[in-house]
């Protein structure tokens, strides 16, 4: 066995304190196991640099020693991209100490941050200058912006503000040879060649390590209205979305859908989450309207939309939040889907996006085929239907998240069903969660050979020695 004592001492010297290097005998568990307990890896060490230069020096040391690097933010990902596979010598490079808000511009509507900043802290910093950073997801209290960028996170506000890719103005990246690419620009317009930052957004740490970002800010909404509506079919959900767009335009801040089964799973497993309505229809939609003008009566606009939809028999009933507390309680239901589902059994989850015109066909066909293939599976759904992204979950009762080896054939079979329907309808198998470990085989099955060759060519050009997050994203 190779003795890495000298190498670990070198890393400790770079980061300035041995306490920032967790070596053999240390507590590796939080860093080598994903949050769902699905992927258990191993690493030589966990290293926590405190600056971009230290990241660069760590990368140079690893490159010289032939040691691979797994960049890790908050370790909240869904696909195992931040878990060290341990198939070769590797370290986990945590970005927790890169957590500074570098600058904020109210005039430029931008904020420059370290990649280790917690998403909620960025939201707070924007709020302090009367601005909004709109990226919002269930893990926002622990996920880091570097991870959000590396997976091109979506969240609940894509309909109005776009994905993380669309929220990034500039990036700072440490390349696989340790060189620092300084692209920390706040420019809104720049046509000088390739937009290099886009290579690293969504690359899941396989091309370099994002250490900083300049992000877009927006005017804060002054008015808000939130409702939960009950509907009898997915077609009615889509009709309501079309009507909402016609009547309300870009005031639609979110349009989130949940099946009855999904909310039942939350109610059964998270008793502290209040469900303020009877579950007597198959579909439920959470609608949020926002406007930068405080004088706009969005409650009235939302009530008019729902009243019209009720008359057209699209909506059977609806609740409009009467206070911010009630609105937060509605959103609590939506943000509890992952935790509630995880407690219900082994979750085979999917992150498909298909054109809205095909959404009803997709939902119907997938549910029908999974039910026929695995009758005991509990099929539940939730998602950002306004942007075409709906998550299909097949929950296998009686199994824990670490028991995937017992149902590998089932996982493969259900994935194949979802992928076949997704591709047939012109969709994508990953709208926002990424590829990581979980979806490499699926990516190989659905991606055109020309595109795969291009992806591999970019990887080979930037990381010829494959030290950046090896074994992730690209199929073997």
Automatic annotation (TrEMBL):
GO biological process per UniProt: respiratory electron transport chain
A Pfam cross-reference name: FAD-oxidase_C
Domain FAD-binding PCMH-type: 39-220
Superkingdom as given in the UniProt entry: Bacteria
Cofactors, names only: FAD
PROSITE patterns reported in the protein's UniProt record: FAD_PCMH
Keyword terms: FAD, Flavoprotein, Oxidoreductase
One GO MF term attached to the UniProt entry: oxidoreductase activity
Family statement: Belongs to the FAD-binding oxidoreductase/transferase type 4 family.
UniProt-recorded name of the protein: FAD-dependent oxidoreductase
Species this protein is from: Tardiphaga robiniae
Lineage of origin: Bacteria, Pseudomonadati, Pseudomonadota, Alphaproteobacteria, Hyphomicrobiales
